[in-house]
Write a structure and sequence with these properties.
Blueprint (H helix, E strand, L loop, with lengths): L9 H11 L6 H10 L14 H10 L4 H17 L12 H8 L4 E2 L9 E6 L10 H15 L3 H6 L1 E6 L5 H4 L4 H11 L7 E7 L3 H10 L5 H5 L1 E5 L2 H5 L22 H7 L11 H14 L2 H6 L6 H5 L3 H5 L9
Parallel strand pairs: 2-3, 3-4, 4-5
Antiparallel strand pairs: 1-2
Helix pairs in contact: 2-3, 2-4, 3-4, 5-6, 6-9
Amino acid sequence: MTHLQAGLSPETLEKARLELNENPDTLHQDIQEVRDMVITRPDIGFLRTDDAFILRFLRARKFQHFEAFRLLAQYFEYRQQNLDMFKSFKATDPGIKQALKDGFPGGLANLDHYGRKILVLFAANWDQSRYTLVDILRAILLSLEAMIEDPELQVNGFVLIIDWSNFTFKQASKLTPSMLRLAIEGLQDSFPARFGGIHFVNQPWYIHALYTVIRPFLKEKTRKRIFLHGNNLNSLHQLIHPEILPSEFGGMLPPYDMGTWARTLLDHEYDDDSEFSADSYNTSSKDTEKDLSPKSMKRSQSVVDPGVLKRVDKHEEENMQPLLSLD
């Protein structure tokens, strides 16, 4: 075991060896091979290429050197293409702070039986008057940056549960194709995290429709890990034990405290709202949402047409339930 594996338990070390092809004898060589590829992309500013940083990308791509480098390049390229998103990329940024305090995202105290961190989102908590969807995405990315520092989570990964209860059609209409694409690029294509499952619960019909919009942009592996449970929490409990879930998900624990993760990031600044003002929201977050990603905006500038939402194909809905994939 090298010093780069010092934060891993014996069980996780064995998991890294078996599932991710991580070999302590060749670890430094693996890292150097990825680092040597940086010169092939002079158009990208690689702001970090230290051993510990590159290692998380290798783990995210099961030590396939080229795939790890491609993810590393996309990580920095995404940040170059969306500079406004990362100008004030900190927990105390007004938009990010408000999103965090409303539970975007939340994190459960207990890991699942695979050692994965369980993230939760309660979609209806979104207060459109105080922060944008871009702020929510920024808060999620910032949270993942903090969590991925834990080497155990680099190996074991994450699970995401999204509760769509009381999420209105008006709110859903704000999920434009360009916004959805921006989120997919940031989370699926450009971040070194392993997502073992994405679970939708209590989703209305128009969320089914939105899923058909984003499905072509999802990798096959991602599609297989999205589970649409609807109101059937028993199917959720087959994958995540109710003993570690809050009551909102039919679990045995008390209701989730939306400020739990925000307090971890913000600490003593959690109760200080002096940085927030209507002007700061209007002049920064809304401008960012208008700009979005240049690459994304070229692909699509239209909002989701309510008429499209109404034309959800029943056959499509029936085929949205994926096969279980936990590898």
